[in-house]
Amino acid sequence: MPNMEFELGLALPTPNIIKGFDLNNLGLDQPKDMGGLEARNKAARCFSDKSKRSFEQAFGNSEEEYKTKTLLLWSGQPNEEDDHKDQKKRTFSTIDENDAEEVDQVVGWPPIKTWRKKIFQQQHRVGRIGNNRVADTDSGRSIYVKVKMEGVAITRKVDIRLYHSYQTLTNSLITLFARDKKCADDDYTRYILTYLDKEGDWLIAGDIPWQSFIRSVQRLKIIQKICTFWS
Amino acid sequence: MHKKTAFSFPDEVLEHVFSFIQSDKDRNSVSMVCKSWYEIERWCRRKVFVGNCYAVSPRMVIKRFPEIRSIELKGKPHFADFNLVPDGWGGYVFPWIVEMAGAVPWLEEIKLKRMVVTDESLELIAKSFKNFKALVLSSCEGFSTDGLAAIAASCKNLKELDLRDCDVDDLSGHLLSHFPDTYTSLVSLNISCLGSDEVSFSTLERLVCRCTNLRTLRLNRAVPLDKIANILRRAPQLVDFGTGTYAADLRPDSYSDLAGAFSSCKELRSLSGFWDVVPDYLPAIYPVCSKLTSLNLSYATIQSPELIKLVSHCPNLQRLLVLDYIEDSGLEVLASSCKNLQELRVFPSDPFGVEPNVSLTEQGLVAVSSGCPKLQSVLYFCRRMSNEALVTVAKNCPNFTRFRLCIIEPRTADYQTLEPLDVGFGAIVQYCKDLQRLSLSGLLTDRVFEYIGTYAKKLEMLSVAFAGDSDLGLHHVLSGCESLRKLEIRDCPFGDKALLANAAKLETMRSLWMSSCAVSFRACKLLGQKMPRLNVEVIDERGPPDSRPESCPVDKLYIYRTVAGSRFDMPPFVWTMEDDPSLQLS
Questions:
Q1: Cis peptide bond prior to B287, omega within 30° of 0
Q2: How many other C-beta atoms can be found within 10 angstroms of the C-beta atom of residue B390?
Q3: What is the 3-state secondary structure (H, E, C) of B482-502?
Q4: With helix as H, strand as E and coil as C, how does B143-197 read?
Q5: B257: DSSP letter
Q6: Per-residue pLDDT tens digits for B258-307
Q7: pLDDT of B12-21, one tens digit each?
Q8: ipTM of this predicted structure
Q9: Using a CB-CB distance cutoff of 8 angstroms, which residues of chain B are in contact with residue A157?
Q10: Do residue B248 and residue A44 have CB atoms under 8 angstroms apart?
Q11: Nearest residue to B109 via CA among B79, B88, B137, B85
Q12: Counting beta carbons within 10 angstroms of the beta carbon of residue A136, is it exposed (0 to 12), middle (13 to 18) or buried (19 or more)?
């Protein structure tokens, strides 16, 4: 791969000593020596006169002459003795205790608003049925179930509440995975849909009534049908 | 022949001229021409924006601008959105309301962001401002529907009640019933963040019916899909609509009812909501898609094929918010269908999962950058990136004003070369000369900050996480970014040196946030002493910083310029570094 920096013309000057800094008395109180702190430096040039005046003028400190300050002379060289310890704070995921794939979370990362995170937490309850669920007729919250297909790297999630029969579920899964698998149509007959039920067993989908199925299913897996003696 | 100078115009003439000047910047410039212009301008300024509520006191604001009609305040630092600012830090609006209640009875509009609002504050607003027209609360907390009910009941001229992403204590579903039957002036209502499971639909329908000027209506999740049709039919003039739950049992009559209702809304330009989407109901919005300019599908957990179909119907889309279910393939379709796209935000559907659950990579971003010439603002969450892709994006989109990239795993390198992403982001700042806002992620060394300091001259806000090698990185930014106003940093190896060497720069900025970095307590104290016009706040839940050696790094540091001095409402875990009294300015 060619050196991108030269292509972009991004060659930069090597870090050099920042001009114009004054050595400062660190931490020593010399009230009359405010004048000693005056030094035009690079930082001061960032602060244009115009905006300085507006800030002071706006809020009444009109007489005070702006003094630029540096509190430390620094050569701009990287510090050798810095031993930055990794200060990551980690909290455990509270979203999905059942799922071993969930990783320890860093606080506030990824940067998603609290409001939005709440929605994710509601939507990603895997296989758990909501407490406020009423018998049959509820149009309650989504039930998200992971779907893995043999040979496909990506595990997807579907909301099984959106479907009302095995057929509609299967059709949707076909559409979903068709892009990943790039199979010919007749290949579908060689796959079976299996599911992990509440008791932890992997069963073939389709044997129990749909309503019982959605109450029991924890995960879905699409596997290749093995030509067996008894199938 | 004599020249008429500006000074010989009567005040009323100048005031009339000034009334055409709306922007704060221009108003500030006008006020500095001379003392008499300053005086005239301050009496006729109607709108004030305070970017940091602790930068100035309410009394100072009102003293200078006694006749304001609108105030906008921001409280907590931006990283509060991600739980980095502990509860109770501050940002209370009550003192402002109290001050204004007495001195500015004709106040019409209050806009707040990241502030703590109480029911008491809301009740005081309702009581004190007879001509109150607009309340916009964005990411605020601390209040309940009782406080809002007071506003609804008392403010006869209320036009706008907009609650965006607020944490509201939802005590009942009856907020809307507090609007009197005689009340008709509603123009904009956004209750999308209200959580209650009960909304009185008849009350909602009657409200919508009698408020014929209603242009914006954003409902909350509790409003079911089968109620939408009735509401839309009663408000065909709507421009901006947010649905509630977009799920229902599939019935042909309810579908056609809904589709018909959407068709009747000829003015509709913006749609949002879409919680719990049943895909079969989506085509109901197709009649309005061709005119849509803004679409927020960021709560819609629909897969790529449905998203593609939807997006293909919206050739005039300017703004799209969507989950990463759209995938690269969907973004390619977006790039070919939506040539007017200006803003794109792609949120992660499974932010805490380790494995990718969707096929969304840097390719999608490249496709959109290539196909959408007007693209200006991007927020993109993904799991991999390359320098090559970033360079391509930068060259395709020199007009970017906002570029926020979040590669979900911290310190992720270029997936092709395993190098840091310095060059890629360097290209962004080099080519996008008008860039105002930038968020970095991925594996980054001090080099990226060199690029930023060298090229990002218009950059106003920079967000940095898990990046850099040394103080040099921070120094580049502070010394090079001339327009920098807000800098927020977390988990970077930046310490005392760069901060102290650029102390003066901090007074030119609104604020600096540093958490989990390497700034010592000693340096904080020094800054606090030497810079009287800065508040240097140390936020540390481990206990008082002076119970540890001075050289210990502080947990969180928030520095902001202020003319109001230290604040008095700090919780026990916040310490303001004392100004040196001998250096006090009068």
A1: no
A2: 27
A3: CCCCEEEEECCCCCHHHHHHC
A4: EEHHHHHHHHHHCCCCCEEEEECCEEECCCCCHHHHCCCCCCCCCEEECCCCCCC
A5: H
A6: 999 999 999 999 999 999 898 889 999 999 999 999 999 999 989 999 99
A7: 899 999 999 9
A8: 0.90
A9: 349-350, 357
A10: no
A11: B137
A12: exposed
Cβ of B352 within 8 Å of Cβ of A93? The answer is: yes
Which chain A residue's Cα is nearest to B83? A108
Closest to A111 (Cβ–Cβ): which among B82, B349, B352?
A: B82
Chain A residues within an 8 Å CB radius of B32: 53-54, 57
Q: How far is A114 from chain B (nearest CA, A)?
A: 6
In eight-state DSSP terms, residue A221 is: E
Q: Report yes or no: B423 at the A interface, CB cutoff 8 Å.
A: yes
Whether the CB of A123 is below 8 Å from some CB of chain B: the reply is yes
Residue of B nearest to A33 (CA): B583
B447 neighbors B467 (Cβ within 8 angstroms): no
State the Cα–Cα distance between residues A73 and A68, nearest whole angstrom. Answer: 14
Q: What CA dihedral angle connects B381, B386, B387 and B392, to 10 degrees?
A: -80
Structure token digits, residue B501: 């060497």
Q: Could you tell me the two tokens for A6?
A: 């030269």
> Is A171 in the B-facing interface, judged by CB distances under 8 Å?
no
Tell me the residues of chain B between 103 and 132 that have a Cβ less than 8 Å away from chain A: none
Are B372 and B341 in contact by the 8 Å Cβ rule? The answer is yes
Cβ neighbours of B353 in A, within 8 Å: 101-102
Residue A22 near chain B (CB below 8 Å): no
Cβ-proximal residues to B372 (8 Å cutoff; 6+ apart), any chain = B334, B335, B338, B339, B340, B341, B344
Q: Please, are residues B69 and B47 in contact by the beta-carbon 8 Å criterion?
A: yes
Q: Cβ(B390)–Cβ(B403) under 8 Å? A: no
Question: What is the value of pTM for the model shown?
Answer: 0.79
- Chain A with chain B: Cβ pairs closer than 8 A: 228
Quick one: which of B139, B204, B211, B135 has its CA closest to B175? B204
Render pLDDT for A34-61 as a digit per residue (tens, 0 to 9): 333 333 333 333 333 343 333 333 333 3
B514: which DSSP letter?
E
A 80-99 residues with CB < 8 A to B: 82, 84, 87-89, 93, 95
Angle between helices B387-396 and B422-431 (to 10 degrees): 10
Q: How far apart are CA B350 and CA A159, in angstroms?
A: 14
Q: List the one residue out of A111, A15, A46, A9 whose CA is nearest residue B426.
A: A9
User: pLDDT (tens digit, 0 to 9) for every residue of chain A, 231 residues total?
Assistant: 444 444 444 434 433 333 333 223 343 333 333 333 333 333 333 333 343 333 333 333 333 333 445 666 565 555 444 433 333 333 333 333 334 334 456 889 999 998 888 777 776 643 233 332 222 333 445 677 888 888 887 888 788 877 878 888 888 888 778 766 655 444 555 788 999 988 888 999 988 888 888 888 988 998 887 655 554
Residues 6+ apart with CB under 8 A from A209: none
